[in-house]
Amino acid sequence: MGNNLKVTDKKVEMNLAPGASVTVLGSKVKRLPYDHVKINQSTLANLSGDRDLSGGDFRVLCALLSVVEKGNDIVISQKAISEISGVDRAAVAKSLKKLVEKGLLEPMESIGRLNTYMLTPEHGYRGDNGRYYETKGRIIKKEVAQSCESYLAG
User: What DSSP string runs through 60-106?
Assistant: First the structure.
């Protein structure tokens, strides 16, 4: 990778492939501070064409995705889902059943009045964004950031 780096006045250029490069200015490269829920693109394509799912079902799914924890665990009451999504509680129960039937959620053991589900990993997951970093407002891959950082430090 060292042959792909070009440094001039604290400007680092890294050629990634023919015709593609990333330029990093300065020596500060920082990890992006937020987490992501990643959803499989084929899952999204299948959901968008699924006539069995209503708009309320999608709002319930979005509410669940907004609280999914690392490890794909979802622990939330139907009342909270209703408040987040704007869907009434009876419809929330039906939506949860549909999402389980579609294989997006796996029911886990309840904790008191809290529903506990797992977002099935083949459809999506929540994790940190350890592969992407930001420098000077630009997002770059972790491998590029580490190469640039070590080159500037050396």
Answer: HHHHHHTTPPTTSEEEE-HHHHHHHH---HHHHHHHHHHHHHTTSEE
Domain span(s) for CATH 1.10.10.10 in the chain:
35-127
- What is the dotted CATH code of the domain comprising 35-127? 1.10.10.10
Distance between CA atoms of 35 and 46, rounded to whole angstroms? Answer: 25
| Closest by CA position to 104, among listed 152, 154, 57 | 57
pTM: 0.62
* 65-122 per-position pLDDT tens digit: 989 887 788 999 999 999 999 999 999 999 999 999 999 999 998 888 788 999 988 8
Count of C-beta atoms within a 10 Å radius of residue 38: 12
Phi and psi at residue 91, to the nearest 5°: -70, -30
Distance of alpha carbon 68 from alpha carbon 117, whole angstroms: 9
Nearby residues of 20 by Cβ (< 8 Å), 6 or more positions away: none
